[in-house]
Design goal:
The protein is an alpha/beta fold. It contains eight helices and 15 strands. Helix 6 crosses helix 7 and helix 7 packs across helix 8. It is elongated and about 100 Å long. The two termini are 81 Å apart. The N terminus is likely disordered.
Length: 397
C-alpha cells in the first residue's frame, strides 16, 4: 500500500506480518528495524545468494503511522521556529533603530531630563524661550483656552500646579497667572458653578440635583466632568449658551439618548449648533439652524425617543420648530413650553402623549399636530391636524 505521489520506496502503513509476509524470509534477507522503520522483500527474493540470475523483488519500507505523525510534527516545529527567529531578528533591528534615533534627537538622558538637567529655558541670546519666540503666537497669551481641564483634587499634578502658581508661576505675568489659575477647575468646583447658573436663572430647582439618577443631574455632571467645551459664565451670552447646552443635554438623558437611533452628535465636544446631521440624506436631524448662536430648530422625529420631554425644553426660547413625532414618548408635554414665544411649528403626533395641551394655544403656532381625534389621547382645540384621520387608519403628514 503506497501513498499517492510518494517517490522512492513504496511505504507500507500496516504491519507486513499481518498481511501474510514471511517473517523468516525477512530475517534471512537482512531486514532491519532501526528508527521505527523496517525493510521487507517480496516473496521469492530471499534466495538471491543461491541463484544470482533470479530477479530481486521490490523492497517495501514499513513506517508506522505514529512515526509519520512524529516526523510531520517535527517538520512543523522547525518551520514555526524559523519564522519566530526571523520575527525576533526584525524586532531587535527596529528597536536598535529607535534607540539610535532617540540618542540622536535627545542627547540628554531621560532621568537627567526629568530631574531638570539640560533643559533650555533661554536661547543663545539669553532671552527666555516663549511660545511667541517659537512661532506659536496663536497660543501665546491664550493659555486659559487650553488649560480648562478637570483634575481630581488628590492628583499630584494639580497640587504641583497650585504650588507653582502660588510661588509666582515661574516668571508669568499677573494676567497670565490669573488666566492659568482660572483655567484649571476641579470637576466638583465647575459642577457648583454650573449649578449656581442653572438654579439662579430658574431653569431647574436645586433639590432636583440631589437625585443622581435624574436627567438633570446627569446632564450637569456630564458638562462638569466630561465636556471639553467648558464655558465660563462671565457674560450674558456665555450664560445663555451654558443654559442652552444644559437644556439639550437634559433632553438627551430624559429621552434615553443612549438608545436613540442616531445620536445626531448630541453630547459631543462641538458647539450645540453643530449637534445635528443629515438623514437619508436630505432630512435634518438634531439641534441647529442657529441664529446668533442659539438653536431655532429641534428635529428628533423617528429617533426611538422614550420617556418624557423635560421642563428644561422651555429654556430653549429661540426655538421656532420642534419635531418629535413618531417616537415612544409619554405623559403630557411640559407646561414650560408656553415660554417658547417664537415657536411656529410643533409636531407631537405618533407618540403616547396624554392630557390637555390647550395651554400651548397661546403661542398661536402656524402648524400644531398631535395625537388628538378618535385615536389620540391629547385634548387640543387649536391643533391644525391630528396624528390620524377620522377613520384612525392613515396618519396625517
Amino acid at each position: 500500500i503506497m501513498e499517492e505521489g510518494t517517490l522512492g520506496h513504496p511505504v507500507l502503513m500496516t504491519d507486513p506480518t499481518t498481511l501474510g509476509y514471511d517473517t523468516d524470509a525477512f530475517r534471512q534477507a537482512g531486514g532491519n528495524n532501526n528508527g521505527g522503520t523496517a525493510s521487507y522483500t517480496t516473496p521469492g527474493s530471499s534466495n538471491l545468494s543461491s541463484n544470482p540470475k533470479q530477479k530481486r523483488g521490490p523492497t517495501i519500507l514499513y513506517v508506522p503511522r505514529a512515526e509519520i505523525k512524529r516526523r510531520r510534527a517535527q517538520q512543523t516545529a522547525y518551520i514555526i521556529s524559523a519564522f519566530f527567529v526571523i520575527f525576533l531578528f526584525m524586532f531587535t533591528l527596529e528597536q536598535l533603530k529607535l534607540a539610535q534615533y532617540a540618542m540622536v534627537e535627545s542627547p540628554v538622558p531621560l532621568h537627567a531630563y526629568l530631574a531638570g538637567e539640560g533643559r533650555q529655558e533661554y536661547d543663545e541670546t539669553n532671552n527666555k524661550v516663549t511660545l511667541g519666540s517659537l512661532g506659536l503666537q496663536q497660543f501665546d497669551g491664550n493659555i486659559q483656552e487650553f488649560g480648562k481641564i478637570q483634575i481630581e483634587r488628590d492628583d499630584p499634578l494639580a497640587q504641583q500646579v497650585q504650588t507653582e502658581t502660588a510661588a509666582g508661576g515661574g516668571g508669568l505675568t499677573t494676567d497670565e497667572e490669573q488666566q492659568q489659575s482660572a483655567g484649571i477647575l476641579h470637576g466638583a468646583d465647575y459642577f457648583e458653578i454650573l449649578k449656581g447658573v442653572i438654579t439662579g436663572w430658574g431653569i431647574t430647582p436645586a433639590d432636583i440635583f440631589a437625585n443622581e439618577q435624574s436627567p438633570q443631574y446627569k446632564a450637569l455632571h456630564w458638562m462638569a466632568y466630561e465636556d471639553i467645551l467648558r464655558r465660563q459664565p462671565d457674560t450674558d451670552f456665555q450664560i445663555k449658551k451654558i443654559i442652552q447646552r444644559y437644556a439639550l443635554s437634559v433632553i438627551y438623558f430624559a429621552t434615553a439618548g443612549e438608545l436613540w437611533r442616531d445620536s445626531a452628535l448630541f453630547l459631543s465636544n462641538l458647539d450645540e449648533c453643530s449637534w445635528n446631521m443629515k438623514r437619508e440624506p436630505k432630512y435634518f436631524l438634531g439641534a441647529g439652524a442657529c441664529e446668533e448662536g442659539f438653536v431655532t430648530r429641534l428635529d428628533l422625529w423617528g429617533n426611538h425617543l422614550t420617556g418624557a420631554l423635560p421642563p428644561e425644553i422651555g429654556a430653549l426660547n429661540s426655538l421656532k420648530s420642534i419635531s418629535v413625532f413618531d417616537n415612544n414618548m409619554r405623559g403630557p408635554p411640559p407646561k414650560s413650553m408656553v415660554h417658547l414665544k417664537k415657536l411656529e411649528k410643533l409636531y407631537l403626533q405618533k407618540n403616547d402623549f396624554q392630557g390637555d395641551v390647550d395651554f400651548l394655544c397661546v403661542n398661536e403656532m402656524k402648524l400644531f399636530k398631535s395625537d388628538c381625534g378618535k385615536k389620540g389621547g391629547v385634548n387640543c382645540s387649536c391643533c391644525t391636524g391630528c396624528g390620524y384621520n377620522e377613520n384612525n387608519d392613515k396618519p396625517i403628514g
